[in-house]
Specification:
Layout (H helix, E strand, L loop, with lengths): L1 H11 L4 H11 L4 H8 L3 H47 L5 H42 L2
Length: 138
Amino acid sequence: MVLVEMKVVIIDKKYNQKQQKFVTSILEGRTVAESARVAGVSTITAFAWLRSGMRDDIDLYRQEIFKDNIGKLKQGMELAVNTLFEILMDKKSSKTVKLNALKVIIDNNLKICEQEDIINRINILEQNYKENMNYGNK
């Protein structure tokens, strides 16, 4: 996966080769056990790495990859939306085609709003959790 490979450059500076393989494997969607095998370490070592702060870094890398992918989707989205609006405004388009274009526009806008709301809620929950964990450690 190209985006993961681009992020490995960032990972290189902080982690040794086995840790880099582990992080890359996690970012590619493998489990901790599978990623430990890929990196050539025990699952005990892998979980120790995660507890030592690697999990936060992995979360940041995932967010960066997600943002990169969203950016690419947004680039293609402009063309798709413009095409939908062209169909909608085209006097030659049938009512059925226009209704389908409207449905796509409305459904996708609703999904985007729902997803943004969910992401915001998750971010708030994660922040509250981290603050509570830090408070408990003091």
